[in-house]
Here is the input.
Amino acid sequence: MNSTNSLPDWAYAYGGAQSQGLIRKTSDDFIVNEIQSFELSGTGEHAFLLIEKCSENTDYVARLLARFAGVRQRDVSYAGLKDRHARTRQWFSVWLPGKPDPDWEALNSETIKVLQATRHSKKLKRGSLAGNQFIIRVCDWTGDTQVLELQLQTIKKQGVPNYFGAQRFGHEGANIAKALALFSGEKVSRNLRSIYLSAARSYIFNHILSKRVTNKIWNQALVGDVLMFDNSHSFFKAETLDESILQRVEKLDAHPTAVLWGKGDSQTCAEVALLEQQVVDQFDDIAKGLCAFGVEQDRRTLRSHIQKLQWQFIDNSTLELSFTLNPGCYATALLREIVQVK
Here is the structure.
C-alpha cells in the first residue's frame, strides 16, 4: 500500500454531516462516565479508585498511581483508555496485598480528583466495563434543525457504523506508517508496538466497514456473516438467514461483524468472506505484518448501538447530546454522521 500520514474519509451511512460546530471547546463539553460491569465487595487486596480527570490521559494517571502507592506500574489496572481532551470518570485498581490504603485524597489536583475509594478481591481487567455514558456539547452549531432531527431519530433506531475513531491512528494517521516501519524491522518499545499493531488492524477493519456502508449492507445480515450479540463477545455464523436472525438484527439485538485481521481462519463464508478478503488483499503488507507479529484474529461489530440517545439545544447555537455506548465504541462515530467540525 502507499501509506500517507492521513486517513481516508470513510463512507457515511446517512449522507454525511449536514451541520457544523465545535467539539471539545472545553473539557466540560465532552464528558465520559465509565459504567461498571460488576459490584465491588469493599474488601480484598486491590484498592479500587473512581477518578475524575481532565487534560490527562489514562496511562499518565496509572503511572501516577503506581508512583504514589509505591508499586510497580503493572500492579495498576484499568478497564479502558479514556480521552485526554475530555472530563472523564473511570475506575483504576491498585494491588496492595497486606498494605493499608495511602491517603488517596493527596493525589487531588487541578486535573485529577479521587471521587471514591474502596476494595475488591480481584484486579480490574481490560474490557471489564458495561459501557460508557457520554454528555457532549457541540458549540457554535449551525445547520438545519429539521435535518438534524431526522438524522438523530434514524440513528436512534438503526445505530451508526462502528468505525474506530481517528485517535486510534495517531496524529494525522501516523500510526499506520509507524506500523509499516515496525513490520520492516524497526525496533520500538512493547507499549508502542501494541499501539501500532492495534492501529494496523483497525485500519483494515474500517476499510471493510466502509465498503459495506458504501454497498448499504453494513447493518444487514448476509448469508455467511458472523453475527455478534449486542454488548457481548458471543457470536454465531449465519449460514442461512431465518426470520429470527433477521428480527434480532432489526431490533439491534445482534449485529454483523467484520474481521480484526490476524492469525487464524476467517469464520465467514460465501460473499462475506470474498468481500473481506478483497479488502485485506489491498493491504497485504499490513495483513502479513500482523500475522508475523502473532496477532490473533478476532471480530468486531459493524454497527454501534446508540443507547439512551437524547438531544436538546441549550441555546440557539449549543447542541447537547447524551447517550451510552458499548465498550470499545467511539462517540466520534456518531458525531461524524451529524456534525462537521469547524
Residues 38-127 form a domain with the Pseudouridine synthase fold (CATH 3.30.2350.20). DSSP finds eight helices and 16 strands in the chain. Helices lie at 58-69, 145-158, 174-183, 190-214, 243-250, 270-282, 284-292, 331-338. The first helix runs from residue 58 to 69.
